[in-house]
Amino acid sequence: MSAPAGIPGDPPGGRRAAAVWGIGVAVYFVAVIFRTSLGVAGLDAADRFDVNASALSTFSILQLLVYAGMQIPVGLMVDRFGTKKVLAFGALLFTVGQLGFALSPSYGTALAARALLGCGDAMTFISVLRLGSRWFPARRGPLIGQVAALFGMAGNLVSTMLIARLLHDLGWVTTFAGSSVAGAVVVVLVLLFLKDHPEGHEPAASGRHAGAAFVRKQIALSWREPGTRLGMWVHFTTQFPAMVFMLLWGMPFLVEAQGLTRETAGSLLTLVVLVSMVVGLVYGQIIARHHSARVPLALGTVAATALVWAATVIHPGDQAPMWLLITLCVVLGACGPASMIGFDFARPANPPQRQGTASGIVNMGGFTASMTTLFMVGVLLDASGGNYRIAFSCVFVLEALGVAQILRLRGRAVRLERERLVASRVETVHVPA
Predict the structure, then answer these.
(1) Is the per-residue pLDDT at 44 higher than 90?
(2) Does the structure show a pLDDT above 60 at 431?
(3) By three-state DSSP, how is residue 253 classified?
(4) How many CA atoms lie within 13 A of 153 on its CB side?
(5) Is position 34 within any domain?
(6) Cα angle at 123 between 119 and 128, to 5 degrees?
(7) pLDDT at 188 over 60
(8) How far is 17 from 183, CA to CA, in rounded Å?
(9) Which alpha helices (DSSP H) does 137-225 contain, by range?
(10) What are the start-end ranges of the H helices in 290-334?
């Protein structure tokens, strides 16, 4: 008999799937607004809490440390408890964290608030990926992932355009406390309307109530897959330059080192986000049609980023020309979409009951690199008296490490994926009518 049109057990998708998944995406959208709001408030935070570059970078480092450290536990939680519970709890945490950041009277309490925000933020993206895999056919996976990331970029856009303006017009407390209302709204939406999966597509019950043995097995089996490790290193290598630029150091670099006004710098940060939204859709369509393009797209993005970053850092004179800064921001806009390719390696390498854990391992890669770079830039800025050329050079070290690992793992991961695809097609053809 001929193979069926879809993979056996594939969810149907459709309007209801889009509506439910849209609630999860709304949570992620708000989480990204809260996560990146510090990127446009870095100078304000330094003045408000009277801290230097290293202490300022600690805000983002701590937030990302919590985020990265939570990825595998969150993946296990999603696999075990389902998306709705994890998303609701995460949204509650990042809402309280944003409100606490608004009202913090000191540097220490502000740090605690950002840590809480990072904990809640960590629960969002993996949950949204899992939600998409439960509600849409597997063939839609690459595009669904890129569209989810696109809405995250839209949240970043809100930060660069709206939060920056509100900070100037309304002040610190009103801006951050007012934005926390959006978090309360998505908590209510999740509790009232979100469902883990459509009827008839319940996940396998085995292992859902296991303890430490379940945790060890999930992590070990996910990590054993070359596709999971390759996905982690792709995410590690592609994401962090744009994350570091957008999350904290882009605005100070453009204003202090390049002599731009805050308005012009904000426009360049907005350009990064807009390019990310366009490139995300393009990458998603390409990968959905041509899986073999994944590694070339990832490595091409890394090469372009390294080239333009180097041109900006070593450009003679105190300031780079505007055309080069624009080019840098355009290239950085491709980093986020390229990092999503990592999930497209881990997804086919793991069965549905391990998708959350595998996604957590992948997602940990980029945020670990971002956290490391944020710290190194802050330390190098203080040590060099504010020399961004020296501080930004640390990017090349992590890119070299990541590229070496991608080249080491790509052959075996792609080969195993092809073997499994052939085996699944043979099995599908022989499914009885």
Answers:
(1) no
(2) no
(3) helix
(4) 29
(5) yes
(6) 155
(7) yes
(8) 22
(9) 141-158, 164-170, 172-193, 212-224
(10) 294-313, 322-332
Asked, for residue 261, whether it belongs to a domain, the answer is: yes
Are the C-beta atoms of residues 244 and 410 closer than 8 Å to each other?
no
**Six token digits for residue 75:** 């993946």
- d(Cα 342, Cα 339) in Å, to the nearest integer? 6
End-to-end CA distance of the chain: 8
CATH of the domain at 363: 1.20.1250.20
pTM of the model: 0.78
Q: Please report whether residue 298 resides in a domain.
A: yes
Residue 244 and residue 37 in contact, taking contact as beta carbons nearer than 8 Å: no
Residue with tokens 């309307």: 193
Contact status, residue 126 vs residue 356, Cβ threshold 8 Å: yes
Instruction: Answer whether 374's CB lies under 8 Å from 248's CB.
Output: yes
Domain that holds residue 365: 15-197+210-429
* Residue 186: HSE in the Cβ half-sphere, 13 Å Cα cutoff: 31
In a domain, 80, yes or no: yes
The dihedral region occupied by 7, where left means phi > 0, alpha psi between -120 and 50, and beta the remainder, is: beta
Alpha carbons 392 and 138: distance in angstroms, whole number: 39
- Residue 14 has what pLDDT? 80
Longest dimension (CA), the chain: 72
Q: How far apart are CA 16 and CA 22, in angstroms?
A: 10
Q: Are 414 and 344 in contact (CB under 8 A)?
A: no
Domains identified in the chain, total number: 1
The tens digit of pLDDT for each residue in 114-157 reads 999 989 999 998 899 888 878 888 777 677 877 888 888 888 88
